[in-house]
């Protein structure tokens, strides 16, 4: 009984806006009273469509939490999150699942693939779950883009780490989601495979028009993006367009000096 | 010490994962202990009963040399009045009393309803003696004073709602005693279920023995200072050694106990057998649990090895966990066993058997047996996984954990499994070819055990193929979710194999027994169609003979063309080759030849009904070289000796009356005194042509005053047969249910542990859009396919066993093989349902998993 919902790959609420996802006054807090820990503190953010956005910040800055909230993986305490114009914070579990399935793609740091399925099956899994037929031409295009033609019948255990991540990228791209969230996608790769991986993501934005949000703590990785958001103590403290690795690193170091003890306001001066 | 501490912590940390293994141990140990407590309690109850109802010294009729060759006269053997007088002269005898008691009676109330026990306990009619006064108390009314008085025991009165003044009819071999209830007596010890009626001595003698100068026994009470042994010696001297049987109180109780004891032993060992099967099934569950725990803990074990733990230490730490599981499970199991025994006693109470919890017997051996068994089995089951834990290399600590490596089934396993299965198959084949049932049963047993072990060994290899085939039919329609379930079921064939094997054992037994059962019914039906010419059969269902009065009524029934009876006569028969044996002769009338058609291999059966003639069966004839025309010396039990000429030899190609030696009932009458002439075992009747219905109704009406006899036409007879076999099978299935429940727990266990093991995968799938419903369905489908795989193996194996058993039992008349496809199909479908149920909890749990936690799990 698969409900074949045919959601247009890039269609949220009709008109195609320049914003793929957004959060307003987003608060995520754990616990209550004395033990209350605020992971996200009134965050406002807009993710541009067709762009490659990087979210950076030190450990515990809330960058993964922000991604999880934007992707409908985690519930929020306050505020609203929109994906393609649709408010998602009050969606029921079922609708959220469908949202993730039909409109969002994921790439995780590790353990991206089901060991029982071969590469091709892993790539088409979200569509299989939805009961949708993959678009053949598009699928071939994606597979060619990530260079996996000869590896489609291999199980994950027969693939290298880089190849596994490329399968994950292909899976995320194949369903043409409105937005792809990548959580430290190069974290487990050697530098060569990591660079290759990032080039794929870059290409998919440039050539396929894909929207990508990537969480990373690696300035080199962030340099592949169009725009970098800096998070510290649950707030967006800075942002940078068309970053280079040096500039990112420089900004990071400055932030690291400023942030301790600060409430984050003066960090975003320039 | 650290090892112990680590084990204890591990055990407590993973107690949830061990829970189902513990339940399996608890259930099996509880069943073992429950059985022991229950049967011990029954033994205690009977011991007390027999001890309290036996006189200091009992004089009873001498037992005939050969118990088998006695005919049923409906009257118990007796001692003459002189025995009573003789016993009085014995030194040390304080009082002597004649006892009259018979179990060959049926007591009915005013509505012709049998008031006897429904559980197979006897109905006893007896005279009211001083001995009875010590064990029974008259709680209302008075003791029987004359022929119209009867006293009944309180349990029966309560069960059948009898009160003073109610009329009871006691049907005996000599006639009916119609009497009103004059008193109700209550047992002072526990009476498990016999219905007892008391008469005054004269009435009892006249009606039960047909003589007022005889007793069934003499009770002698010892004077003060005289031991029972001394008294027995004195009584023996007074009456003459060898004249009668003399027993002290203890001897009498022991011999009564021996009779019931063999029944209790059968019950005990049968129940223990089922407990053993459950225990065996539990082993699979425990093996799986420990294998999975070890696999999940590979990294941790690697670390232990890396920092210097020896293999032995790792191995030992796992075994200590098993020990803790075994001890905890067994202790709870022993307690639960006592509870189970009490529950069983309550159940028996509801069915009409009285057992008092005040006699609950917990021998010291019971908890010891439960503990030793539970702990040993757990350790045994954990041994292989523990050894595997010891082999984990220190490098494992450094490797990425991920999902534990999927187990692969090896070649050695395949070859070994196939060899065992082939050996077992050969055994089964040999059983089908056996010429003697006793040889064949050995082959059958060997074949069953070897094929079972073979299937268990080879199961993981079969999983690959069979699960795929099953999946094509059952899972593929569910699309990707179905295929994911299939892959999950296949990813660890050893685990799937062991889980399914547990289910296989129970279902194989169910299948084989159902094949044997339905073959029994089919064979008997075929036999009835082939050889029984009579339309109606009158017979009791509890081994009571048909009394002369009842037989007379049957003969008087309307619309009957012929009425004929079957009587058994005991005799010692000497063949021409000089061999002598106690045998039963079938005393019938010539009309019996039409009621039950028999083939002969030589001679004419009609001639066997001539004066001083008889027939023998082919087997007997072959064994003793008897031919038509030979003469056999026949010494009738309690009668004279005769020389009977063999006029016919019947073929053994039959089940009913196989090997019967027919004589004319008049021949028996000639050589037996009237009081030794037997009652009939059954009455066969044929209706007038075209009046079958009327005749059947008339005969039923005619026999209504005798509820102990069933009147059945052929159709009803077949139905009864089927019901009886069905009831027997249901009872066995009920007992096998324990093993099947443990096996289902095994499926739950495997799924639950798999869900824990696959936490990250589940999180990933949920993140990329698998809905809770789909996730739950995936787990359910995996469960269904594992259950169906087990069912397929079990039913296949069981049908082979059943077919082999039938071929073997064909030697005993089980000629027709019938596979009960309905049952087999129902079990197969049922196992799919069981699979669904087994997946409920694990699927629910997987559905509730937090997506983020699942992704984050290391």
TrEMBL record, chain A:
Highest taxon, organism lineage: Bacteria
Originating organism: Streptomyces daqingensis
Pfam family membership, one: ABC_tran
PANTHER family with a match to the protein in the record: ABC TRANSPORTER RELATED, IMPORT ATP-BINDING PROTEIN
Segment forming the signal sequence: none
Transmembrane segments annotated in the record for this chain: none
Keyword Transmembrane: no
The protein, known as: ABC transporter ATP-binding protein
Keyword Secreted: no
Any GO MF annotation of the entry: ATP binding
Keyword vocabulary terms for this entry: ATP-binding, Nucleotide-binding, Transport
All residue ranges annotated as the ABC transporter domain in the record: 21-258
UniProtKB/TrEMBL annotation, chain B:
UniProt KW Zinc keyword: no
Chain ranges of the MacB-like periplasmic core domain: 19-237, 496-699
Protein family (similarity comment): Belongs to the ABC-4 integral membrane protein family.
The name this protein goes by in its record: Membrane protein
Native species: Streptomyces daqingensis
Record-annotated membrane-spanning stretches: 269-295, 318-342, 362-384, 414-431, 443-475, 496-516, 731-756, 781-804, 824-844
Keywords: Cell membrane, Membrane, Transmembrane, Transmembrane helix
Domain ABC3 transporter permease C-terminal: 274-394, 735-850
Tagged with keyword Transmembrane helix: yes
Region span, Disordered: 57-98
InterPro entries (UniProt xref): ABC3_permease_C (IPR003838), MacB_PCD (IPR025857), Macrolide_Exporter_MacB (IPR050250)
Domain of life: Bacteria
Topology with respect to the bilayer: Multi-pass membrane protein
Subcellular location: Cell membrane
Pfam families: FtsX, MacB_PCD
